[in-house]
From TrEMBL, chain A:
UniProt entry keywords in alphabetical sequence: Membrane, Transmembrane, Transmembrane helix
Native species: Brevibacterium jeotgali
Domain of life: Bacteria
Transmembrane segments: 13-36
Protein name: Uncharacterized protein
From TrEMBL, chain B:
Transmembrane domains' residue ranges: 175-197
Comp. bias regions, Low complexity: 19-62, 78-95, 122-134, 142-153
A Gene Ontology molecular function term of the record: hydrolase activity
Family annotation (InterPro entries): Sortase, Sortase_Class_E, Sortase_dom-sf, Sortase_E
Catalytic-site annotation from UniProt: 295, 363
Keyword NAD: no
Region (Disordered): 1-163, 387-406
Organism lineage: Bacteria, Bacillati, Actinomycetota, Actinomycetes, Micrococcales
UniProt KW keywords: Hydrolase, Membrane, Transmembrane, Transmembrane helix
Extent of Basic and acidic residues compositional bias: 1-18
Compositionally biased tracts (Polar residues): 99-116
Name under which the protein is recorded: LPXTG-site transpeptidase (Sortase) family protein
Cited NCBIfam families: class_E_sortase
Protein species of origin: Brevibacterium jeotgali
Pfam families from the UniProt entry: Sortase
Length: 54, 406
């Protein structure tokens, strides 16, 4: 899987490494900015309110 | 070789041994290019002899010709065969290396070649024929001469073929393993985000919102004093998801302050605007129960130390109208659906209270939503905005950081 990615990236290994780091940074950003805030409300340790049926 | 063998090297060696074995057992009839080969027993002895004499690796007559051409591209490539610690095998292997689809090692060939060097030209030819049968099984029937003439293209070909031995089963297993590792990394990242990054983001939002509130209050100084100085001014509720106050709790830290917003929805109030007021409850200073909820962990954890409150601790809520000082009385741990704690007289919903109560709710225990920690406080002091902050927070770093009297 990652070996396929490594081979698909162009250039010498240093360029591949930089591209890989960019891809990792993009994935981390997307996760932290968009995915995790959507998932977080389903986590069982965040509810602080008192409400009916809560 | 004194170096440890990799898996690929071992496979190549085994394959070479098989090829030599098959060539020996099938006999000369199966290989027309080895007509002068002696009997099978002699061939077998020759193989063993070659194994014993591999270390000297005498240079054949082709060495001065082949060596410069074959080593030049080999230096640019990578792999155990080109390791400088293994010089004795390289010259002798060189002519046969290209016939390998996988160029990881040619240890097996050095055996055959060594046999040829020891036994003479005719035996060397038979050994070559035996060795050439292995690539032929894999669909690569190029002759040694053609392959050795390929020269420059050899390096690229080696690099690509290094990945080939991974079959579908092994490839699937590896992909599955990589997916598992990736999922683990994502989970770790989620924990980091939840426990660390949400605090950073919420603290930043807290500062921004507090600055905004202070600025708004300075622009609209409608601090008309009430008729009775002892009766606090009660502001009208603001729109939901809007900040309207700043809460200071000296017990939570010298520099502790959190904004108070309307509503108790996770987004955006509790996650980004400090604590949130239950819309059904009273406003600060109003007769009744001014109830707020806040995270105890994550998202800036405004009520992280709610269990540290001691009777007599002051909770100051600043709004555009003034400072409302509540004094902590007692706490309670209830189930999440115990809405009676939000009543005007807490836990007694049937009564219409006459006291000015403040109720703080947070999850309990930490990192769980099983219960709620409820803290009760009672209004003990009120200061109009024009009179400045009460003494309990006037000199605190939190009040100075917010903007204070500026």
């Amino acid at each position: 899987m990652y070996s396929l990615l490594w081979r698909a990236l162009p250039g010498p290994w240093i360029v591949k490494l930089i591209l890989c780091l960019i891809l990792i940074a993009a994935a981390v950003y997307l996760l932290m900015e968009y995915v995790f805030p959507v998932v977080a409300p389903f986590m069982p340790f965040n509810d602080a309110t008192i409400e009916e049926g809560g | 070789m004194d170096q440890p063998m990799t898996r690929r090297e071992r496979r190549e060696r085994e394959r070479a041994a098989e090829a030599a074995e098959s060539a020996r057992t099938t006999g000369p009839a199966a290989d027309p290019r080895a007509p002068s080969r002696p009997d099978a027993g002699a061939q077998h002895a020759g193989t063993q002899q070659a194994g014993a004499q591999q270390q000297p690796a005498p240079a054949g007559d082709q060495r001065p010709v082949i060596r410069p051409a074959s080593r030049a591209p080999g230096r640019t490539g990578s792999g155990p065969a080109h390791h400088p610690a293994a010089p004795q095998g390289s010259p002798a292997q060189a002519p046969y290396t290209p016939t390998f689809p996988s160029a990881g090692s040619t240890d097996g060939w050095s055996t055959s070649q060594g046999q040829g060097t020891v036994r003479g030209p005719s035996t060397a030819q038979s050994a070559f024929a035996a060795s050439a049968s292995a690539p032929g099984e894999r669909g690569d029937a190029r002759s040694a001469a053609t392959a050795s003439a390929a020269g420059a293209g050899r390096t690229d070909r080696r690099r690509k073929t290094e990945y080939e031995p991974l079959g579908p089963v092994r490839g699937t297993i590896r992909a599955f393993g990589e997916l598992c590792i990736t999922a683990g990394m994502v989970l770790i990242l989620f924990v980091v985000w939840q426990l660390w990054w949400t605090d950073i983001a919420a603290n930043r939002d807290n500062e921004v919102l507090a600055d905004q509130l202070i600025t708004d209050w300075q622009e609209n100084p409608d601090n008309e004093l009430p008729d009775d100085p002892d009766t606090p001014v009660v502001a009208d509720p603001v729109d939901e998801n809007t900040g309207f106050g700043i809460m200071y709790v000296p017990r939570f830290g010298e520099s502790y302050y959190r904004t108070v917003a309307e509503g108790v929805s996770m987004e955006p109030v509790l996650n980004r605007m400090g604590v949130g007021r239950y819309p059904s409850s009273a406003m600060p200073g109003e007769v009744g129960n001014f109830s707020v909820a806040g995270h105890r962990v994550t998202y800036g954890k405004p009520l992280n130390q709610i269990h540290e409150l001691r009777p007599g601790d002051e909770i100051v809520v600043q709004t555009g109208d003034g400072f409302y000082t509540y004094t902590f009385r007692n706490f309670e741990i209830v189930l999440p659906d115990a809405t009676e704690v939000l009543a005007a007289v807490p836990t007694m919903p049937d009564y219409k209270g006459k006291d000015r109560i403040m109720t703080l709710t947070a999850c309990n225990p930490m990192f769980s939503a099983r219960e709620r920690y409820v803290a009760y406080a009672e209004l003990t002091d009120w200061t109009p905005a024009g009179d400045g902050a009460p003494a309990s927070i006037a000199d605190s770093p939190a009040y100075e950081q917010v903007g204070g009297d500026a």
